Amino acid sequence: MKKPARIDTSDGLPVAEVGEWSVELKHRLLREYVDATWGVRSKYQHRGYVDLFSGPGRVEVKTTGQIVDGSSLIAWRASAGSKAPYTSVIVADSDRESTEACDTRLKRAGCMPRTLVGEARETSRKAAAELDRFGLHLVFLDPYNLKALPFSVFEAFFERDLRHVDFIVHFSANDLQRNLDSFLAEETSIMDDFVPGWRAHVTMRARDQMRGTTFWYWVSLFEKHGFQIAKEAPLIRGGTRQPLYWLVLLSRHPLAANIWNSVADKSPQGSFGF
To answer: Model pTM greater than 0.70?
Structure first.
């Protein structure tokens, strides 16, 4: 997360600046998914939420100046308003000031989070180690770019052998659109960490074909661990309609995908496709 841009005068804590598109759709999808899964959560004694790119917990919309809750507060409030609140909330960020602000805001909202400071490749292992293996957990990953989300982040949760864990992931269409051909031409690139083994599956061709091949190879890495991608993967667009990222759900249980699909198919921005 970038360092906070300014202070929210309502609580004296820093906020991060974001684009309007990051709030309206992404946050609605997260809120509605947490709302819709309360019945499933109620069947588990241990219910965890993990956000490894939490930021300070509140964000300022760049175009309007409006200050609203960020992802971790949205997820906590949605669960707390149900009969099955999260029993464990873990938030992390590479910026210490942001992490401390998020921790304070969650505590004021009635949550007692576990907070971690560091890059996701480091905090993922600490977070996974604290989750009950037989509980039901949601991991929300919303990085600024592909570089911040190496596949080792997911491997930390696979190695913990968590039986019931779902991932909501920001997959950057913008990075693929602008940089994929240059990534392929370089001897080493950030893609080698993000999608290990991708070079053996992607060759220089039409850009849309390259993007599609890369994306589906990334999905195949999850399939090796029993995960499937939900059919609906809304494409979040910027203010000039440029593609920014897909928001995807990866889960082992079809019920999670069905719930996500019912929430995400209302997206006004269009679903996944190449």
So the answer is: yes
